Amino acid sequence: EYSCEYGSLKFYALCGVGGVLSCGLTHTAVVPLDLVKCRMQVDPQKYKSIFNGFSVTIKEDGTRGLAKGWAPTFIGYSMQGLCKFGFYEVFKILYGNMLGEENAYLWRTSLYLAASASAEFFADIALAPMEAAKVRIQTQPGYANTLRQALPKMFGEEGIWAFYKGVAPLWMR
């Protein structure tokens, strides 16, 4: 009747895969727009508007330049989706069991909010390293063109902290 039992490992895995597909693919699909937005934030004199930003990027980097940062975007947001969707269900069941069936129903909105916030806490930790690499690739000309170049350079310059400086703003968002 059902593809898997509610609360089973398969259930959590399917929720996680749903998160990978929905977050990883959608964020990767809008990389060109995100790239221009980030560049507008960093250098508003050069990138005056969305359309101007696309034009400048294509003129300087070609059409392929619009895909800069696709790999850390795909990996980072896939990891975030995995954690967000998978851990939401884990925490929903965990907190529901702690409250008991009747209280879980009565306090379901609060339970869902707590489960969502808990999942997002871990999801942002999973996202932060790739988001940091993506922003450097997209906004610091000459820093790195690929994830393979950015990761060792970031670690060599700042150590592990380079990957997690942005986690607190992600939590606040």
UniProtKB/TrEMBL annotation:
Pfam families, alphabetized: Mito_carr (PF00153)
Keywords assigned: Membrane, Mitochondrion, Mitochondrion inner membrane, Repeat, Transmembrane, Transmembrane helix, Transport
Domain of life: Eukaryota
InterPro entries the record matches: MCP_dom_sf, MCP_transmembrane, SLC25A3/Pic2/Mir1-like
GO biological process: mitochondrial phosphate ion transmembrane transport
Subcellular location(s) per record: Mitochondrion inner membrane
Record bears the keyword Mitochondrion: yes
Span of the signal peptide: none
Gene Ontology CC terms: mitochondrial inner membrane
Catalytic activity: phosphate(in) + H(+)(in) = phosphate(out) + H(+)(out)
Solcar repeats: 10-94, 107-173
Annotated GO MF terms: phosphate transmembrane transporter activity
Primary location: mitochondrion
Transmembrane found in the keyword field: yes
UniProt record similarity statement: Belongs to the mitochondrial carrier (TC 2.A.29) family.
Function according to Swiss-Prot or TrEMBL: Inorganic ion transporter that transports phosphate or copper ions across the mitochondrial inner membrane into the matrix compartment. Mediates proton-coupled symport of phosphate ions necessary for mitochondrial oxidative phosphorylation of ADP to ATP. Transports copper ions probably in the form of anionic copper(I) complexes to maintain mitochondrial matrix copper pool and to supply copper for cytochrome C oxidase complex assembly. May also play a role in regulation of the mitochondrial permeability transition pore (mPTP).
Quaternary structure annotation from Swiss-Prot or TrEMBL: Interacts with PPIF; the interaction is impaired by CsA.
Record's protein name: Solute carrier family 25 member 3
Naturally occurring in which organism (per UniProt): Aegotheles bennettii
Encoding gene (name): Slc25a3
